Amino acid sequence: MVTMVLTKNLRSLLKQFKVKVIYQELLDIHKEAEDLLEKKGNAYRIYYTKEMIKEYTRNLLIEAKWANERYVPTVEEHMSVTLVTCAYAMIISKCYVHGDDSVTEETFKWVSTYPPIVKASCLILRLMDDIATHKEEQERNHVASSVECYMKLFGVSEEQTHEIFSRQVEDNWKIINQKSFMSTDVSRSLLVPPTNLARVCDVLYTRGDDYNHAGKEMINYYIEALLVNRMTI
């Protein structure tokens, strides 16, 4: 019994140590980027990125509270939080940190307001991720997914919810396609990150959950092709 308690405590300490190491590494990376950008007069880029990280963290705490209380939020509540915690807007912001002169302070303000193309990219990830992973997630103490929220609110089956969400994914792709050709808010080059991140969802979730459980096609066609096999130029 004593051995079991000690082992559990040791695992907890190791986990805390790993988290601290990762956190410190993140701080170091952002400090290095900040120093570099200050020399170029672009320190504002790190400021806005940090603000989005803070927003992301605050919303993660809301998710943790929901999970601990076993609270199933409304669809509106869920989306207001999980569109942030899906992290796509934060990642898009990071894509611009070392960008060229087409990136301005207005670019970061634009991302932080979740304009249609950014919101559409986030929604595609949120919906496709939840369709693929919600069953496994609900087997552990995880926050309710959008699938559970939708089923509870509208009294529909899981299969019906998947069909509705799949149509919503298609609708959001239409928004991305439209904004890619017609957007006047920012230069077209800045629309590449939200578009490419939405494409990633097709790779990860079309066949199921290839993010957490990579299948043969993911391993052979994508991972090995990118990291193992030689490229012919």
Structural description of this entry:
This protein has helices at residues 2-39, 44-69, 75-85, 88-95, 105-112, 116-138, 146-154, 158-182, 192-205, 216-227. The chain is globular, with a radius of gyration of 20 Å. Helix 2 crosses helix 3 and helix 6 (116-138) packs parallel to helix 9. The chain is mainly α. The N and C termini lie far apart (61 Å).
Question: What's the shape?
Answer: globular
How much of the sequence lies in strands comes to under 5%
Instruction: Describe the sheet with the most strands.
Output: none
Q: Count of helical segments?
A: 10
Low-confidence stretches: 1-6
Output mean pLDDT: 88
The overall strand count is 0
The termini sit apart by 61 Å
> What structural class do you assign from the helix and strand content?
mainly alpha
CA radius of gyration is 20 Å
What percentage of residues falls in helices of 4 or more residues?
over 70%
Note the run of SSEs as H and E. Answer: HHHHHHHHHH
Quickly list its features.
10 helices, mainly alpha, 233 residues
Strand-helix topology:
Blueprint: H1 2-39, H2 44-69, H3 75-85, H4 88-95, H5 105-112, H6 116-138, H7 146-154, H8 158-182, H9 192-205, H10 216-227
Organism: Tagetes erecta
GO biological process, one term: terpenoid biosynthetic process
InterPro entries: Isoprenoid_synthase_dom_sf, Terpene_synthase-like, Terpene_synthase_metal-bd
Short description:
By secondary structure, the chain is mainly α.
